[in-house]
Amino acid sequence: MNRKVLYIWKIFVIVLVNVLMIAVLTHAGSSIQTLSKIGSSGSEVRQIQTRLKNWGYYSGSIDGIYGTQTKNAILYFQRKNGLTTDGIAGPATLSAIGLPSGSDLDGYSNNDVSLLARVISAEARGEPYAGQVAVGAVILNRIQHPSFPNTLAGVIYQPGAFSCLNDGGINAAVADSAYRAARDAMNGWDPSGGAIYYYNPAKATSSWIWSRPVIVVIGDHRFCS
To answer: For 43-103, which CATH class?
Structure first.
């Protein structure tokens, strides 16, 4: 092969590599959803629909498809919360909903999601979805509180913290909703209003927990500071 042909092949290979790199980067960039609008679909849309439905803004199906009903719900939410009414779930609207744009579960791993889901499922099985998320939020709130361990596993396995560790409930089959609730809590949704405790009045045996100021009641649980 003469030098001219070799030179042409080198140029061809360089161009081909650059084209492939651009294609890969373009595809990667397109997979990161920065905002949701008409025509969007996926987990972010499903989370938007779930939250708006729990709050009474949305009455459609939780199907992960951003259609007219979802847009109208976003418009309603935006009007009620002083946001720009464009029907698009951009960064400001996502933040107001509790879904920061580009959120990646705040650095939590898949193992963390599974562990939190197990506790949510065991502690809040049969509770309203917002109540399941609230239980997860309480656990995450404890991580940030100086009175508790500063890791997820540390909070969950703190002696006496959760009855499901003593009665084996944490080892039971995990409800699908618990995984969604764990991710919602990790993405910043806190229906508990910042609570660090919760209890069921019908089951609570500690007189001390009754003294805690109640922030909100969801289902059978009282969430307290």
So the answer is: mainly alpha
Beta bridge partners of 65: 41
Opening angle at CA 206, ends 157 and 112, nearest 5: 20
pLDDT value at residue 32? 35
Degrees (nearest 5) of the Cα angle 192, 193, 197? 55
Which residues are CB-contacts of 198 (< 8 A; sequence separation ≥ 6)?
Answer: 134, 135, 138, 192, 221, 222, 223, 224
Which helix (H) or strand (E) segment is 6 a member of?
Answer: helix 3-30
Return d(Cα 10, Cα 7) in angstroms, integer: 5
pTM: 0.55
CA–CA gap between residue 33 and residue 101 (Å, rounded): 8
**What's the CATH number for 107-224?**
1.10.10.2520
Q: How confident is the model at residue 30 (pLDDT cuts 50, 70, 90)?
A: very low
The pLDDT tens digits for 172-202 are 888 889 999 998 888 888 899 999 999 998 8
Q: What is the pLDDT of residues 59-98, one digit of tens each?
A: 999 888 999 999 999 999 889 887 789 999 887 788 778 7
Domain limits, the chain: 43-103, 107-224
Q: In what order do the strands lie in the sheet with 221-224?
A: 197-199, 221-224, 214-218
Alpha carbon distances (Å) from 84 to 134, 151, 174: 28, 37, 39
Eight-class DSSP state of 214:
E
Q: 65 by DSSP, 3-state: which?
A: strand
